[in-house]
Write a structure and sequence with these properties.
The structure holds 2 protein chains of 2 kinds. Chain A is mostly helical. Helix content of chain A is 63%, strand content 3%. Chain B has a 5-stranded antiparallel sheet. Chain B is globular and about 70 Å long. In chain B, helix 4 crosses helix 5 and helix 5 crosses helix 6. Chain B is of the alpha+beta class. Chain B contains 6 helices and 5 strands, in the order H-H-H-H-H-E-E-E-E-E-H. Classes of the chains: A mainly alpha, B alpha+beta. Chains A and B meet through helix 3, helix 9 and helix 10 of A and helix 4, helix 5, strand 3, strand 4 and strand 5 of B.
């Protein structure tokens, strides 16, 4: 067997194994778990081999103020999309907040490198078109792990192109420059997740299931702008000992 | 005769004192937001003076956390919420062991997270709580320059001995309920004892610090 058939056999084995392991989906929102797990393994391998090492180098080499500046720069570009989505969600005040942030940080903040707006009391928001669709009443649909882009529900998957075209780096002239920007953005965002990686290292039973559930909870939280309705059930079979919890 | 009278009188006094004391304690448990803020401040101060760099530091920290922080957590309730439905079928012994292992896992995660502390600022939002509420959510924000603030919410319940944390929600993700489907999967495949064993193995392996964190700091 040559190398290519080895690789194909390995992928086939992955798919087959995950297919067997998941005859019963562990989450009703994840009916395509077998396929998703296979795709997740490919993405995870890519992360381990390429993206995470790049993020670790970035994180270790650059001094903190530089990283802060780079993070701010990309964050500032994102404020335009935040403004548009807040407007589409019927939150004109939040949209205005984001526009003023962009105006402030792009000028006084030296092209966004300094986040002067946060210090002036204009908070950073986090919106995307998937959240806008949710606010408009579009249901979430099944969970789907995409190559490179990772796990999303169908609604967020459909929203991805809109986010892509509302990201200013998409309009950078010249392919080399444009894709350098995109790659840098991925590395910078990945570096921000390194502390969380380290805190949970070696303690996760099933990374795929955990990341999927974290995604579900996080999206719920974002859609409700930080105030999701949360209920805590009681599995004690004896409500009295846990009274007053609902 | 006289002596017995005096003893009785003294005993009555003591009993009365104990009663009023108990009542005072029960009437005014420390407000939940005050409690969380005090402990957070104390932990941050401690971190500044004793940063975690070696395995020995880590062990000292675990002892400190056990003594100062953990008494304010309700680990049994946390474990119940993480396990979900199968908790009903678990025997008292299984519940005890599950709680022990999950507690170890959470404490390890917490200590690892503390290692990542640089000099982020902590801000507390005003507490929204009606008189008589037995469950509250204390909201705080970790402010990091250059990125979106991270919300950390402590969900607490009033128990006989004060407010106890039973969930910590970081950026919208519950440290407790986000374990539910992984745990459920494990129980479905290997039973409750299987989950206990898996957790125990993870905990045993996590006793030394992860390799690539050593150069951090």
């Amino acid at each position: 067997m040559n190398k290519r058939t080895h690789a194909i056999a390995a992928i086939a084995a992955c798919v087959a194994m995950s297919g067997c392991a998941t005859s019963q989906p562990s989450n009703p929102k994840d009916p395509w778990e077998g396929f998703n797990r296979a795709m997740f393994q490919i993405n995870d391998a890519l992360d381990t081999v390429v993206i995470r090492p790049a993020a670790v180098v970035y994180d270790n080499v650059l001094p903190s103020p530089v990283k802060t500046g780079v993070g701010n720069f990309f964050s500032n570009l994102g404020d335009l999309g935040n403004a548009a989505n807040n407007l589409l969600q019927g939150k004109p005040q939040a949209a205005l907040n984001d526009l003023v942030r962009f105006a402030f940080n792009s000028t006084w903040g030296l092209l966004g490198v300094l986040d002067v707006a946060s210090e002036a009391g204009l908070p950073k928001h986090n919106e995307d078109f998937g959240q806008t669709l949710a606010v408009w009443g579009v249901g979430d649909g099944p969970y789907l792990v995409l190559p490179l882009f990772g796990g999303h529900n169908l609604r967020d998957t459909a929203a991805l192109p809109v986010d892509y075209y509302s990201d200013p780096t998409t309009y950078v002239e010249g392919d080399a420059a444009k894709y350098s920007f995109k790659a840098a953005e991925i590395v910078v965002k990945r570096a921000e997740l390194l502390p969380a990686d380290r805190a949970t290292e070696g303690q996760i039973i099933d990374k795929y299931a955990q990341m999927r559930d974290v995604y579900f909870q996080r999206r719920e939280y974002q859609i409700y702008d930080g105030n999701p309705p949360i209920k805590y059930e009681d599995f004690d079979g004896n409500g009295a000992s846990n009274g007053g919890t609902h | 005769m006289k002596q017995t009278m005096m003893w009785r009188w003294l005993a009555a006094c003591l009993a009365l004192l104990a009663l009023t004391w108990g009542a005072a304690l029960r009437a005014e448990p420390k407000a939940p937001d005050v409690l969380v803020k005090e402990i957070s401040d104390e932990v941050i101060e401690q971190l500044k003076q004793h940063p975690i760099k070696t395995d020995a530091d880590m062990n000292e920290w675990l002892a400190y956390v056990e003594q100062r922080v953990l008494p304010h957590f309700d680990f049994e309730r946390m474990t119940m919420l993480a396990v979900g439905q199968p908790w009903r079928q678990a025997t008292p012994e299984q519940r005890k062991r599950l709680t022990q292992e999950f507690k170890t896992l959470l404490v390890r995660t917490y200590a690892n997270a503390l290692r990542e502390y640089r000099d982020e600022k902590l801000e507390f939002k005003p507490l929204r709580m009606a008189p008589g509420d037995k469950t509250v959510r204390v909201s705080s924000m970790v402010i990091r320059p250059g990125s979106e603030p991270i919300a950390i919410d402590y969900v607490m319940e009033l128990k006989n001995d004060g407010w106890k944390v039973f969930d910590v929600v970081v950026a919208g993700v519950s440290l407790v309920t986000s374990y539910r489907s992984t745990f459920g999967q494990e129980i479905q495949a290997k039973g409750i004892d299987g989950l206990i064993q898996t957790l125990a193995e993870k905990n045993a392996r996590g006793e030394t610090m992860p390799a690539d964190t050593a150069k951090q700091g």
